[in-house]
Structure formats: structure tokens, C-alpha cells
């Protein structure tokens, strides 16, 4: 006897069988998102460096 109850998934949880082609995105179409990602990375690195510098100065 299985102690786990049967769970019936709704139609939104059933696996899809659609295997159509994946659309190709040109590199120029994705450039805006890449630039935003690069800016975010630079901002995070700058914030971490600034925080480290402040911690070092406070420790002196």
C-alpha cells in the first residue's frame, strides 16, 4: 500500500509535447539587454570594491 495520495495535475502542469523550432535572435536584437547586464555587473563590482575600501579604512 502506497502511503502517498494520488496527485492529479491540472492542464497547466502537464508536460508539453510541442517540439517546434526555436526562433533565432539576432545579436543586434539582444544588444540592449547585454549592455544593461554589463552596467549592472559594473555597478555591483564598484559597490563591492567601495564597501571593501570602507571596511579597510574603518579598521585602521
TrEMBL record:
For this UniProt record, give its keywords in alphabetical order, as a comma-separated list: Membrane, Transmembrane, Transmembrane helix
Region: Disordered; residue ranges are 1-33
- Give the species: Candidatus Brachybacterium intestinipullorum
Report the transmembrane regions from the record. Answer: 41-59
Can you name this protein? Uncharacterized protein
Comp. bias (Basic and acidic residues):
1-11
Amino acid at each position: 500500500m502506497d502511503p502517498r495520495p494520488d496527485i492529479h495535475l491540472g492542464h497547466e502542469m502537464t508536460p508539453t509535447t510541442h517540439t517546434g523550432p526555436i526562433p533565432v535572435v539576432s545579436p543586434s536584437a539582444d544588444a540592449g539587454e547585454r549592455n544593461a547586464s554589463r552596467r549592472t555587473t559594473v555597478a555591483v563590482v564598484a559597490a563591492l570594491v567601495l564597501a571593501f575600501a570602507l571596511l579597510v579604512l574603518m579598521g585602521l
